[in-house]
Amino acid sequence: MERRTLLQTLAALVALPGLTARSRAETAAPADFPPLTKTDSEWKALLEPARFQILFEEATERPFSSPLNNEKHAGTFVCAACYLPLFESAHKFDSGTGWPSFTQPISGHMDTKRDFKLVLPRTEYHCARCTGHQGHVFNDGPPPRGERWCNNGLALIFVPQGEAPPALRS
User: Fold this and answer.
1) DSSP secondary structure letters along 25-47
2) Model pLDDT for residues 52-75, shown as the tens digit of each residue
3) Domain membership flag for residue 143
């Protein structure tokens, strides 16, 4: 490899993180919820350490460690930080990856950004209300959408159908 090509490649890799601006994943529905902004110390006071690390430090839980991976009941999955509903159980499927996976989120409730942490670009998604990190979306899901929204179980709380979801945090 020529020195110039090597330097250009290295410069491009250094510039990639600057290209991670957020974009709206699902823009069809207007936001029907107020945004929620808290400091790290406020979130730490509300969340267990493992949940805080996943939601606000973008950590990832071990595969096959979440009981939500095997959750098969009807209901809604809400953000563990702010309680915004994110997924309906009708869109959950067993991806075999070890993380709860969904074919689509509730419209307008997710924001996305490009993630280059593993060098190759991925689409990371966050709760649109509190910006809590949920997981990554991939294009290897089942038809008809072909999407796999791969979520950290600790970033979600399951609310069975017929039970009232928790009130949105303020």
Assistant:
1) S--SS---S------HHHHHHHS
2) 999 999 999 999 999 999 999 999
3) yes
Separation between Cα atoms, residue 87 and residue 85, nearest integer Å = 6
pLDDT at 13: 42
Q: Which residues are catalytic?
A: 150
Asked whether residue 170 is domain-assigned, the answer is no
**What is the count of structural domains for the chain?**
1
Write the DSSP symbol of residue 123.
Answer: E
Structural domain span for residue 136: 3-160
Q: What is the CATH number of the domain that holds 83?
A: 2.170.150.20
pLDDT in tens, 22-50: 333 333 345 688 899 999 999 999 999 99
